[in-house]
Every structure is written in C-alpha cells, then in structure tokens.
Fold these 4 entries.
Entry 1:
Amino acid sequence: MALDTLSEFIDAIDRIGELHRITQPVKVHLEITEIADRVSKMPGGGKALLFEHVILRDGSRSQYPVAINLFGSMRRMSLALGVEKLDEIGARITALMDLKVPDGLMGKLSLLPRLLEVSKFPPRVKGGTPSCQEIVWQGDEIDLDKIPVLHCWPEDGGPYVTMTAVVSKDPVRGIRNVGMYRVQQLGKKTVAMHWQRHKTGAEHMRQMAERGEKMPVCIVVGSDPASMFSASAPLPPNIDEFLFAGFLRKDPVRLAKAVTNDLEVPADAEFVIEGYIDPAEELIVEGPFGDHTGFYSEADLYPKVHVTAVTMRRNAVYSTTIVGRPPMEDFYLGHATERIFLPLLKLTTPEIVDYHMPAEGGFHNLVFVSIDKKYPGHADKVMHALWGQGLMSLAKVLVVVDKEINVRNPVEAWWVALNNMDPQRDVRFTMGPVDVLDHASRAFTYGSKMGIDATRKWPEEGFTRAWPKVIEMDAATKRAVDAKWASLGLPPVSPT
C-alpha cells in the first residue's frame, strides 16, 4: 500500500521503531541543525526526529512541528519507496527496458503486463478542495516567519527551505519539472530560488525571459515520500517527476491546481508556497550556505520569488533536511538514486557491473565503478563514457575496478585500487564541467577530473609480469571454523 501523505510516512516510521519525538523547546535558529547533525552521524543514520515544541526566530512557539532525517537510514529509504531493498526498483526498470516483442501469440500476451506497468501511473488531478488548501494565506496574511524555516549553520545567508519540490513548466511544450532546489527566505513574502544553470528550472526561466513573461512557480514542502524523493532524482528533462513517483508508488500521484497560478501540486501536500519570478528583475544575492560538501558555498546571484499564496493542510507538519559534513540524510537519498538508476547507466554502458558514490566523496567527488573487462583499454572507455553522461559528467574522480570487486564497500575498493595501480601508467586526467560547489576547481564550474584504471592489466596494456593471487582461506577450513566458532567464546563476526 502506497504512503499518500507525509503523516502516513511518519506514522510508518514510528511503527518500525525509527522515530524519536522531542517535546522539549528547541530553536529553529541553529539548535535543530545541531541535534539533527549529531543524530544523523550515529551508526546506520540515527533515528528520524519529530520536534513537537519548536521556537521560532521571534521567540514564539511554532504552530507546526518539524520533521527531519526522515529518509536518513537504509530501512527508512526503502520504506519510503515501498520496497524491502532498493535494488527491487532497479529490477523493475530493467524489466521495462527489455521490451523487444517476442514471437507467437502467447509471447506477445506475456508482454502486456510490462506495457501496463509503463502506462498506468500518470498523475491524476483531484476535484474539489484538496487537503493541501484547507488553510490559505493570501495578501497581507502571507507571513513566512510563521513557518519554522531553519537557519541551519552560523554563516548561512539566512533561513532556508531545504526539502523542497519546486514545480515549474516548460512554456513551449508544457512539460512539468519538479526539482529539489534550496530556497532562502528573504522576508515575509519573498524568497530566493537557488537553481544552478544546468537545472531544468533554470532553463524554464531562461525561456520565460525570452518570451518576456513572468514565471509561475510552486514550492511544495512535504508530500508523499515517493514524490519527495523524485524531486531529487536526476531524471531526463522530458520525464515528469510525478509520473516517476507514481511508478515508484505503483499508484498515481493525486494532484490539485494551485490557488494563484495554473501549476499542479500534490493534493495532500503539507505546505505549498505559490509565487512567480519576474525575469526582468535584477537577480539578488543568495547565500552563503553550509552545503553537502561540508563547506560553505559562496553567495551568488539568483532569482527572487514573489509569494502570492501559502496553502497548507490543517495540522500540517513541516519537513526539512540539513546538509553539511557527511555522512548525513542526503547520503541515503543519493544511495537510493544510485541503486535505482544503475539499469539506465547500463543501458548506454552495459559493461558496468555496479557503481557506488561513497558519502565521503560528497557524491560528485568520488565514484567507484566495477566493470566486466573484455579488452585492453576497456577501463579508459568506461571513464570517458561516464564523463559524457548527465550529472556523472561532474564526477571528479572515477576509480574503475574488475567485476568481482564489491564497490559498495569503499575499504575493499580502495584496497584493490591502491594495490592494482601504477600512478604514472594508470592515472588519466581530463578537463570538463565540474560541480558548482567545487571550491577547489580552477574556474567556476570548470576544472580537471581524474580517472584511475585499477583493473588487472593485460599484456597488450604493457604488463608482462605475473599478476598475484588474492590471499583466501580454503572452503573446508572455513566450514570447520564456522562449526566450532560458538564454542570458542569469541563474539560473532560478519562472514567474509
């Protein structure tokens, strides 16, 4: 059964024993961040937190509780998407991609369930007054100071709405985009929209500017967990995130028309901040911001959003997240993306067996890739293929290893890589786009990347020495020690 609301998600987390309620007064200014940061760095990601007594910046008590670290464990991430293991979703995508038409009537009939899987989850617009509009602020009622927006880190430029789903629309083709962009609160009725130049929302704004039109936007805060995740997913520009959320949920997302513009938002969202951007206006300073790299990103110029309405559910819960020195909640969101999109990566680079972006690398700084090596120079081919694909083009360091290496275990991956590489022979350098948050690059969004070929070397690659065997105990001895382990008085150990 799909989880339809944020409250249902929180209740489900509570039932599995991974929710901690905090009833003591806690400030939105820095204190919630400090508590959540400590909890998220506990083994396994710590518990989800629900702050029930939140103190606003003016010292008053918030009407709305604050939920944070909801996605911050492997178990909760799987719960959010309705699976036991995240690889189950990748398997569904793999099955969908294998749609070659079989011979014979029975073979063709066997294809129908997979075709139905593609077509049955488009979002649906709900009639009547949706729960996300049980309360509506317009005009002088609009006051973002009443919402518990966190001031996360001491040198941040201001309070930030972080766990967002920002809805915009291509003005020519009418294709919707939903992106997770941070939003800085500037005043009671204005915010700054941080979307980097390569993001789809930014492209929509450029198109609106060319047309000389104002751009409507809706900032959704808190909805069904699949839609919240989908806003962060690196989908192709033509794929509707709410359609993808329906696929993940195995149930369509229910939408409703916004109050002050023609965009559609999740009907059961907790909060929706409606507004518009005027591309003719001067950009405004946004930032600094304590980012997922663990460093502050610098202030820069971004568009201002004029808020035209704030709508919400009665008894709404404000969901948020924080980023900073890893590991934090965003690691688990990123891990879900990694597992779900592996089949799509294999579609263009089929020799890839697995890949992993460890928390310490902040996603874009380090990617381990295992491949089924078939010919000399195969690792080089994979490196350049990955640097030519979407957000993987921002990867600063790619480490390529052989297929039997468990890249999800960075200790094993580094052990193999550092033993298998000759620095002069096996390291490649190239130039290209880098993440906007990369403070070490030689220029803004442009710099160098490094690829390490840590596969076994072939004679054609200039290696003529014997390649050594990995040390491993024989199976019979392992079984014998397993049988007597309990009698040795030693603690249990994980199997190797």
Note: The domain at 349-461 is CATH 3.40.1670.10 (UbiD C-terminal domain-like).
Entry 2:
Amino acid sequence: MSASRSSQPVVTRFAPSPTGFLHIGGARTALFNWLFARHHGGKFLLRIEDTDKVRSTKEAIDAILDGMHWLGLDWDGHEYYQSQFWARHAEVAHKLLERGHAYRCYMTSEELAQQREKAQAERRPFRINSPWRDATDPQGDKPFVIRLKAPRDGETVIEDRVQGRVTVQNAELDDFILLRSDGSPTYMLAVVVDDHDMGVTHVIRGDDHLNNAFRQLAIIRAMGWPEPVYAHVPLIHGPDGAKLSKRHGALGVDAYRDELGMLPEAVDNYLLRLGWGHGDDEIISREQAIEWFDLDHVGKSPSRFDFKKLENLNGHYIREADDGRLADLIAPQLGLADEQKELLVRAMPELKARAHTLHQLGEGAGFLFASRPLDLDEAASGLLTEDARSLLAAAHQALANVDDWSHGGTEQAIRAVADQAGLKLGKLAQPLRAALTGRTTSPGIFDVLVLLGKGESLARIEDQILEPTE
C-alpha cells in the first residue's frame, strides 16, 4: 500500500466542470475545502475540469469564477485547467501500460453491446470482460483504448473522514478506460493525475463520488503514489427529502445574488451549517468558521435545504451590514443617481430592520424616490376614505405649523390631531402612511416624515386631500 499524504501540509482543491453555473452544492463543497485549507494554514486550489470540450463553455467558466469571488473563496495561485495537462495524462496511461497495470483493448462497440445485453439477460451487473486483458500481441493500426487492469482479488478499503470505513470487493471493479481511442484521457484518469501532480492531500467532495474513489485508488496504487485522505460529504436534499432540484432552490450562485437578493456572507454561513455544526451556534463569522472547521463534525446524513432559514439568516446579515454598502447594492435596483444615495444611506437604519432580502430592501426604499402624485397600491387606496381625508387635512395643517421638523416635533403634532379627534394614534398613522408612501407598510411614520422632509411630506398629503382616490 502506498504512503498517505495526511502528514504533509494540507492541500485541498475544488474541481468544478464548466458545463453550467456554480450550483449551490458545488459552492458548499468549495467552502468546505477552502475552510479546511485555511484552518490548517494550507493551500486551496481551483481546477477547472474542462475535459468535456463539447459541453464546456467560457460563459460557464466565467460564472464559476464570478461565483467564487462573490462568496469570498479565494484560491492560491492561478486557476488550473485540466485540458492543459492532457499530454501528462497520456504519459501516465502509457506508464501503466509499460508496468503491466493497463492494456490495449481492441473490443468493438458491437462486442461491448453483446456483453452488456448478455449481462442484462442474466440479470447481473455489467462488467467488462475483455479478451485483450492478458494479450501481448499488438494489432497493428486497429483502433484501441487503454484500460486499467483493475485488481480482481481481495478488497479495497477507504477510511473516509466522513463516511467512516467503506469496503468494496475488487471483483466489483471494472477495467475502465484510461485513454480513449482518439488519445484523450477520461475523467477518471485525469483527476487522479492532476491531484497527484498538484500535491492534493485531502479530497473533500460530494458522496456521489465515493464509488469513483475506489477506481481512482486503483490507479494511485498501480503508480505507487501517496494516497489522499478522502472525505465524501452527503449531498443536499430539498425540504421534502428528495434530491435537491430547481424547485427547492438548486440555482446557480449568481441567482442567489441577482434574483433572490442574498448577501454572500449569509449564503456562506448557511452553506456552512448545511451539513456541519459547532454546538448550537447558528450565526458564525468567517473568522470563527476558519477557527472551528473540521471534518469530524460533518454529518453523515443528507442535509435539507430550507429557503426560509436562508432568508432569515440573510435578514440578520442585512441588519448587520454597513449602510453605505447596502445603499450601493440597491441603488441600481432603484435607478438612483449618486446624489440620491445620501438619502438612502440616512434611511437605511429604518429600512433594513424590516428586510430579509436586498429586493425587499429596495422595495421598502422605493417610496423615498417616488414621483408625485404617488401610485397607491390597492390596500393603501382603500384606507383613504372620506373620513380619512378629513383627518389628513387636519394633519396637514398641524404639520405645516411645525418648526422643529424632527421625530419628536412631528410626533407631537400628529398626536395632538389624533387626541383632538378622539382616536388612537394608529387610526391616523394608517391613512397618513398611505398618503406618504403609497403603501400600508413602511418604516415608522415619524421616520418617514423626517426622511421625506417637510416640503415633500406636505405635498404628498395635499395630493390625497385634493384628489380622492378611486
């Protein structure tokens, strides 16, 4: 058995295939690898596995890099591209051939189909049984693939850091292809060679790759290379326990930012807690995550994605975020000019207290920049009855006489109007909010008055007194 890499400085990697966006499960895998490397003072590498030239696209690569940057998952050195190392992959395949651990297989697609059909008829798993496994005579110019001569006796054991001890009988392993007939490497060969050459010590990935680990170990041992430490993390399921799909929230990382209005620190925190825990801690900073992260507390069962929990967590991080940063994030949503951001920043402490997403934050801020006369929503319009407009007229007169246009000054004036009418404050605040914002929800009514300023506030109230809503 080959030596383990576990005693060497830690090197992890994230190796996505650029055939689509960086999905949420891949982002969690990247985060776990990043945290493990940072916790141990090691290296975190990024390798784009672009061997599928038909499906790999520049747009997908850009989306992966963009998603990694947004989540704050910086990698050490430049990103690697698997297609750059095809010559090296082929070199290793031929070394295995020379050492008797691989063979040229000249089986045709028809012969393979016959074996597959026979296995199906006999209701047994299909395993390649190549007549060329022990052959020594080359077949001239006939096309061939290079297959690994997989061990057939005994068993292979993996001491997985998440799954525990996992054993597979070698008779279940097949003679899989290393090099295709056109000379291109398969994924199974390329990933092993690249991990070895990049010095990867810990392979942390989804448990859908666990079966691959046994095949990849066969290559590693045949080459006499150090074996990595494996940690296969359970996949993410939807709240109903089914495999995570788009209806559950299996979107690209960019969609969480652009379509759902999430902050990267909230997504990072949520993904960290999705399958890993540190006592009862729910809110975990980046610094704490680096200090605490280990593989021992990664759960063995699939995690369930709960969008409501993510949204609530995002609300926490919005409340904690810098007001200027939030203003910069939602200004494009509102179509604001730079000079309008100052008002947005001043309003932010009140606005962010009610928002769970950046979109909600933007919607909540919309009234500040709305043009007169306001376009009232149905609920707000329903509040402005004839009696309500009479109250608004009284409020307008009282506010017009306010010299101290502050929270306290405006409150004193509005409370006096409510008291004179024999009403609780809320009975006046509701139609006043509708007139000032066009909505039935907003920051506190006195905060709204102060933020809008005296002139704009009086003008909006007057619009609703003079023009009864339908």
Note: The first helix runs from residue 24 to 39.
Entry 3:
Amino acid sequence: MASESSSADAAASGGVVTRFAPSPTGFLHIGGARTALFNWLYARHHGGRTLLRIEDTDRKRSTQEAIDAIIEGLDWLGLDYDAPPLFQSDRAERHAEVAWQLLNAGHAYKCFATPEELEAMREEQRANKKPLRYDGRWRDRDPAEAPEGAPFTIRLRTPNEGETTIHDRVQGAVTVKNEEIDDYIILRADGTPTYMLAVVVDDHDMGVTHVIRGDDHLNNAFRQLPIIRAMNQIEGNWPDPVYAHIPLIHGSDGAKLSKRHGALGVEAYRDEFGILPEALFNYLLRLGWGHGDREEITRAEAVELFDLDGVGKSPSRFDMKKLENLNGHYLREADDMRLAALVAARIGEEADVTLLARAMPELKVRAKNLNDLVEGSAFLFAKRPIALTDKAAQILEGEARNILRTICERLRGENDWTSETLEATTKALAEELGLGLGKLAQPMRAALTGTTTSPGIFDVLVLLGRDEALARLDAQAA
C-alpha cells in the first residue's frame, strides 16, 4: 500500500486521496467510525481513493485484538479501502531518513539537552507561569559543544516569526503565531520517530491530498506543516494537503462524549444493542453533516450527495434514541431472511430460521433493534408449559379460563388454519358470547405467548401451527 507517489502527483491528475489512520490502542469507537465514514464518502464522491493506515507505533498499548476489531468494524460498516492497510511501525526507517534529510539541510538540529535539564526548564516556566515549551537552547549552538558521544534528539527548526494561516474546509481560516510552535522533537535519542514526523511522511508517501480528521488535531496541523514545507524546499513535490477538521461528537447533554453517552466500540452497537450497519452508517453520516431535512439517506445517495461543504462547525450530539428510531426504519426495510438469520444467531440452536423469516413481517413492525426481535420471537420457541409474565397471569384469572375453553372448542373444529379464517371464526364467537373481540384476544395472547404483547393474535396462531396453538390454549384452559 505504501506508494511513493506524492499528494502533488494525485492533485495534478485530479485524484482525491483520503486516509483513515486509527491507533490500535482500543476498539473502533463511534467518533473514529464517523471520521472513517467521512473520509470514505469524500473519496468515493470525488471518484478518488481512500486508504487505511494503522498507527501502531505505540508498541506497548497497540494490540492485535484492537487491530482486528478496527478492521472488522470498518468492514461491518461497509467501508472498503483501495489498498491493504499500511502499518506505521513498518516504516520507522523511512521516517528516520526524512529526519536526517531535514537535519542535513538545516531545517532541523541536534539537541543535547538532558532529561534533567528539560525538566528544570519546565519547572522554571511553571514558576514564572509561562507556557511549557522548549526554549530553543540548542537551536543555534554548535553540536561540537556537546560532550563526545552524548545522546541527542533531532528537533525541527520551526519558524519563530510571523504567522501561519490554514484555510480549513470546515473551520475556515485559522491563524496561529509561529512563535507559539516550539522546536519539537522529530527523532528521539533512540532513533525512533515521533508521531508528528511519522504522520507527515506517511501522508506524503501514500499520496494523501485531503486530511479529514477530528478538530482535536487542528493544532497538530500547525506543527506538521513546517515539516511539509521544509521537505518541499529540499525535494519539491511536497504540497500542503487540504485540511478539514471535523467538530467532535458530544453527548445528548452537550458534555464531552463518554461511555455513558454511547462512546463505545462499533462492535457494541452491533452485538449489544442490535443495530444494523446501514442504520449506524446513516446515523453517523447525519452527525455533523446534513442535506436539508433528510434523515434517511441510502449508501448510494450518501456517495452522491456528500461533500465537505455540508459539514457544520458545531459539535454534534449523539442520541441513542434517534439511532434506535432510525434503526427501526432499517429493520422494517430489511430482507426478512437476513433478519431471521441475525436473530437466530442470537437465540441459539433452538431457533428455526424459516419460522423466524415467516414471523418477521409481524415482528419487525414495532422493533427498534435486533434485541427487540429476539424478545418478540421468544414465544415461537417456548416449551410447554409456557411461563407467564405477571400481567399475563392476571389476565388468565377468573372467567378468562372458561372463555379459553370455549375458544379451544371452536378452534378445534377449524381446519382452514389461516389468519383470515381464524379471525372470522373468533369474531363470530365473540358476537355469540356478547363480548368484544379484545375479551377473547387478550386471554388467547396470554396463553399462547405468556405475555401481553405480541404480533396480531391470528398471526400468532398461524405461526405456531394448529397443533401447538391448541396445545398451549388447552394447557392454560385446564
């Protein structure tokens, strides 16, 4: 995946290249998933390429489990990439090469300050209530002044006068005084690259033209641009990328998103909450981007409509209820056999996929997630004697059991076991008894399902089948 073509080549040919670059120190959380989605959509909308980079340089915290979860989560959302993932840890030699290029060209310098000296510098800054930043003590010193063989880091020689303006596609023009950016380390004393250097080199080598990421990275852009511009002076063909820094997602109460708001891994929405991928795709799309008042937008429509002009500057608010309502829409639109397979996987071996598929048109009407479908279909696989909820047991007290016995006698003589015929027979019986249909339907529902809520009672009779339905009614009528 590590193409050495630059973003200039891609831009010259009119090609957009975006990237998603997660750190595998945890699962794919909801904010990262939205960033991945926006990068994917922007590239697809413009007929470009979108790439995946795993920033696994933190070897202590990066895990294979997290890498697998990130890739699986992206795949579940339907976000495909135009090359195999690039692993940042494989490119340390290339990162160091650029650091030495910067050093040899005078855009960086060796810093021999010891950890003790740097800590003393910071203590003095704290005492004087000054910003904590490197004071440039080795910026203009001759390296020969350092003890022979002394360890050193390589620091970038950042501009210390004037200001830098980024024309961000979301935030607009943002200006920072160059004196606020200190000469930061790009290569550690042990020869390993820092995050700031690695990101810039990888983006260049991957041909990234548009850096779309959370606005918590906006400050990083001002630290990364000096590397890009210095390398452009050295080699040429290192253009500034187009930046688009997306506002973060907040909780429904406006506070920073946390686990209590829903800041969980994508797999939790799939496994714990029973959300469909197309629903989460649609919901994440609408978190911070809009197209009029439209809420439900298909994948194809999203590719057609998405552009950065529609991304707002204000943080969006995550609302689990809205996600579930949207998920309910997609459940009703989903193929019944597909839903049956998903629900069967949650129920276990006793599940009958064919029966679930037959029941799905009724079950999915009110469901908001797969868990609702599991709960709603439980009566199909319940074993006699059916366990009753407290409310169902109350319905079957007193005269209800006599009514059930009468219903059993009438239904036992019915050979055309269809919902239409069963409804007509039950309505006729209700009229004979001088009762409303509900007086018959309620005890039937309690006896057949053990609950007070279910699909239409005549659909329940058909789904259970004649023998099982009559056996359940008989058991509660006794």
Note: Residues 247 and 313 are 6 Å apart (CA to CA).
Entry 4:
Amino acid sequence: MAGWQLAHRMGRLGTESAFEVLARAQALAEQGRTIVNLGIGQPDFETPGHIVEAAVKALRDGHHGYTPANGLPALREAVAEDLYRRHDARVDPAQVVVVPGGKPTMFFAAMMFGQSGAEILYPNPGFPIYESVIRFSGATPVPIALREETGFAFDAEAVLARITARTRLLILNSPANPTGGVVPKAELDRLVAGLADHPHVVVLSDEIYSRMLYDGAHVSLLRYPELADRVILLDGWSKTYAMTGWRLGYGVWPRALAEHATRLCINTHSCVNAAAQYAGLAALTGPQDAVSEMMAQFTRRRSAIVAGLNALPGVHCTTPGGAFYAFPNIAGTGLESRAAQDLFLEKAGVATVAGTSFGAFGEGYLRFSYANSLEAIEEALSRIRAVL
C-alpha cells in the first residue's frame, strides 16, 4: 500500500459526467456496438478553414514561444471590440484574460472568493464543474433551483433571498447548460436592481453560449454599468466556432481583479498556446458565415429533437431558447434519470446524460445534445421509442 496521503480537498473535487458517458459509449463501440452519441456537448462541425489556416501560419511564422500570461495584446483588443459590437459594452483590453478554455475562469473565480465559511450560489441543474470547484475551494455551495415551468430561468427574488452575509460569489449561466434555458431581460433587471443591496457579492456570468440564441438578442451582464466593478464574464471560442479541442477561452474581469487572474495564469499554465491565440484572432476578425450556418443547422435539429421527444411515451420537452441541449422531463416513463441514461445506452445504443449529473434538481430529466446530424437524432429517437 502506498505510504502517501492525498490532501482532504481532493475528496471534494467532482467530475463532468458527460465524459464518463463518452468513455462508456466508446467502450461499447469498440465491442462492435453502433452507438448514437447525444451525450457530449461539442459541435459536430469542423473548425472553419480560415481559423485553422491562421494557426498553421502562426506556426510557420515562428510563433513558438511564450506569450503574455493574459494573452496576446491583439487578441485581447479583438475580444474587447467583439464585445462592443455584440453587447454595446465597452471593455478595456487590460480587463481581458485569455485562458485555455472556459473552466479556468470558473476555477479562478472560485479560488478568489471561495474559502471555509463562505457561500457561493450556483444554478442547479447546472454545469457540474460549478459545484465541483466551489467545494474544492472550501466554500459551501448554495443551489439556485431552476424549474421547468419557468423555462429553466431563475427567479430573481428567489436568488436574492438566498444571499446571506456569507455569500461571496453568484454564478449565473444564460443560455444554459444543460437546460437550454434563457433568462429574460426583465428578470436580469430585477436581479441587478436587487444586488444593489448586496455590494459584497461578485457575479460570475457564464455566457459561453451567447452566440447560440434562437429568438431575440442576448443580454450580457456587461451591459449593466452598476455591476461594472463586480461582474466577471466567461466566454470563449469552443462552442461558437467549433473549437472545443483548441482549448481557448477568456474572462473579462473587473479592473481590480484582472491582475489577480493574470497571476493565477502565471501560476497554473503560464500562457495559452500561441498558435491557438492566432486562430482565435482570426475567428473574431474574419468572416462569420460559418457561425450563421451552424446555427441554422442547430435550429433545424432543435425542432426535430423537441418534436421527437414529445412524441415518446412518458416524455415531454420544453423548447430550449439557446445552446444545443434538450432537457426533457422523463418522469412519465417511471424511470429515474440515471436508470434511463444507463438503459438507453445499454439497450438502445444511445448516449445521453442523466439530469442528476447536473445537480439534485435534475432528477426526472435527461440531457440530449443535438450537436449531431438530423439522421443521428432521428435514429436515436427511433431506438429509444423501441426500448420504451
């Protein structure tokens, strides 16, 4: 038996169940099973060619060394310009910190504000890494229940009622994973107004799906000047530009926190891969046709999967307002979430993710990613119908 002993905090670190389901699906595929994967949350499109070529050119041009820890100046300027175009929000490039994906911004925020005795509010059902990093920080996770009857958008008064003197950070996500829920502007207005009574609370706004909205315009928390000194924006390239494997994201930090975020970069990963940053620059400054084409495909797939799910016995599904996830209620099947996930994978050869993987309030639901072809979606629904 090994003589070493792990630090207790390692026992508080969770995982992302979608990757566990992916591993099981791949194992079944290696056994000769045909698996339809509606579990993993990544676009099934290739990164647009001009973005790939920008990375190749950067390598050929000799960009093989370190970059500034917070990102290439040109890339941070491009991010600021993009945010102004999309959100009418003026951001100083010095507030932008480029990181390898979306998760470092979550982790940095939790490390800055989470400690024993502190509380951090987070959406439930929500991205599982929120609760994981909160627990790892030593803080107490306080769930914000998201309900189907409100389209999985939070109720501002309910959120404000959960804030205490110990609350240090509030995590929000719209459009949301796993539900596809979108918070209406009126609800954001009420929340921001109420936060005036809680100046000790910092807000982490995860807007990684901000370009993936089906109706209306995205409302960023950057648009509220009264939160300028305490809102952290999380965004990036993974979903919008089909760049999940490039590991490229960014945070926009209040001026007083940007330096702390940069020091965390220096201590964890030094800087982001240089070629990937040049690819990110090309994505923001180049043609956006591929983004529009991808969203047109997702729109068609959304219609197909929602209609198909609602036709299954014991299942009903609200129409997601954003992202590329459907979150159907399966209570009518008599199956609990984890049992349904396992049944559909083992018997139907369809990978989905149990709603409980996203928190206790996800019981009775499954997450379906429609980042797959219409043919695959139709095949998956046919197989599930046969099993049910």
Note: The chain has two domains: 8-34+289-387, 64-285.
